[in-house]
């Protein structure tokens, strides 16, 4: 059967999506949000919040020991090449509820808008807007009661995996530039971070048409960021995996930080593939990595 002109495929990026001449985008994997108020295995309570008409978030709260207890706050940005993933999917649910329970932390995962429907830098803009909303709770009078009552804004951490780690780093840099009212970011957890290589990345070129390219864009290449030294946190942990095709980029990022930025930088290498701790959270290796995250947070 001959296809109509509008059904001609103009771009295809497996395993993510294809684009037709009409502008229609077909995603290869359908996403269904998991609606839950308590994660049954951990007992972690879940609350979904609306930050703006375009941005949502999911908050994970472990059992609280007493009405006055405050726990570290981890702000999480999910991975997925800027074009897949969600704060509300099953994978994120299992990973973050386990982290919240084991590390005894409040986690807020930001659901930023995805490319290609919303081309970059929208994901960065949404993530910063969400962080500004979170910051309104630092004096205990923000719109969300859980954050007001239970989040310790003296112990705030940013966390992301893959593209989400890239976003987390950008939020930390911007926080250092504009300043935060009443608190600062204590630490940054970079798990298997995605940054561009010197080779052209056709997916990123399509998702981010405004970019000046891998060599010059500070969002894609931290070496080219004149504001990297101003990043607002005290310490960073960079996690890489031995079978991850992005391992070298994570190691390079760690070296860049050590040469430019004055905080503490720790590099952790484990066995495994890209984002194994998210895709297979029940594995022994994932559990050990979550322990490293918990130690990094709670030894603040």
C-alpha termini separation: 63 Å
The fourth-level CATH homologous superfamily of the largest domain is: Alpha/Beta hydrolase fold, catalytic domain
Instruction: Say how many strands there are.
Output: 11
Helix/sheet category: alpha/beta
User: Would you give the CATH topology of the largest domain?
Assistant: Rossmann fold
CATH architecture of the largest domain: 3-Layer(aba) Sandwich
Order of helices and strands: EEEEEEHEHHEHEHEHEHH
Strand order in the largest sheet: 4-5-7-6-8-9-10-11
Indicate the percent of residues in helices: 25-40%
Mean pLDDT: 94
Integer tally of domains: 2
Outline: globular
Strand residue percentage: 15-25%
Poorly predicted runs of 5 or more residues = none
Tally of DSSP helical segments: 8
Specify Rg, calculated over alpha carbons: 19 Å
Under CATH at level 1, the class of the largest domain stands as Alpha Beta
Largest sheet descriptor: 8 strands, mixed
Family: Belongs to the 'GDXG' lipolytic enzyme family.
GO molecular function: hydrolase activity
Pfam family, one: Abhydrolase_3
Protein name: Alpha/beta hydrolase fold-3 domain-containing protein
Kindly summarize this structure in a few lines.
This protein is an alpha/beta fold.
Describe the 3D structure.
It is a single chain. This protein has 300 residues and is α/β, with parallel strands linked by helices. It folds into two domains: 30 residues, no CATH class; 267 residues, Rossmann fold (3-Layer(aba) Sandwich), CATH 3.40.50. 30% of the residues lie in helices and 23% in strands. It has eight helices and eleven strands. An eight-stranded mixed sheet has the order 4-5-7-6-8-9-10-11, sandwiched between helices. Strands 1-2-3 form a three-stranded antiparallel sheet, with no helix packed on it. Helix 1 packs across helix 8 and helix 2 crosses helix 4. The longest helix has 16 residues. It is globular, with a radius of gyration of 19 Å.
């Amino acid at each position: 059967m001959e296809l109509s002109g509008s059904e001609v495929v103009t771009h295809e990026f497996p395993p993510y999506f294809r684009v037709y001449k009409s502008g229609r985008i077909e995603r290869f994997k359908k996403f269904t949000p998991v609606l839950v108020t308590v994660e049954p295995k951990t007992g972690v309570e879940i609350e979904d919040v609306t930050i703006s008409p375009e941005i949502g978030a999911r908050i994970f709260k472990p059992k609280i020991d007493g009405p006055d207890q405050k726990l570290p706050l981890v702000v999480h940005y999910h991975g997925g090449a800027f074009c897949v993933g969600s704060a509300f999917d099953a994978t994120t649910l299992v990973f973050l509820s386990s982290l919240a329970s084991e590390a005894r932390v409040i986690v807020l995962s930001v659901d930023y808008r995805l490319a290609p429907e919303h081309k970059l830098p929208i994901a960065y803009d949404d993530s910063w807007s969400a962080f500004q909303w979170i910051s309104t709770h630092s004096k205990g009078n923000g719109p969300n009661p859980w954050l007001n009552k239970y989040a310790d804004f003296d112990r705030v951490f940013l966390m992301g995996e893959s593209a989400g780690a890239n976003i987390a780093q950008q939020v930390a840099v911007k926080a250092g530039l504009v300043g935060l009212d009443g608190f600062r970011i204590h630490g940054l957890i970079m798990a298997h971070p995605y940054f561009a290589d010197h080779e052209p990345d056709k997916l990123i070129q399509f998702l981010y048409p405004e970019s000046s390219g891998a060599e010059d864009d500070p969002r894609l290449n931290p070496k080219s960021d004149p504001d990297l030294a101003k990043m607002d946190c005290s310490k960073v942990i960079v996690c890489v995996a031995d079978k991850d095709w992005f391992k070298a980029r994570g190691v390079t990022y760690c070296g860049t930080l050590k040469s430019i930025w004055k905080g503490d930088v720790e590099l952790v290498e484990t066995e495994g593939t890209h984002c194994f701790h998210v895709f297979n959270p029940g594995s022994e290796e994932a559990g050990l990595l979550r322990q490293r995250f918990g130690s990094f947070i709670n030894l603040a």
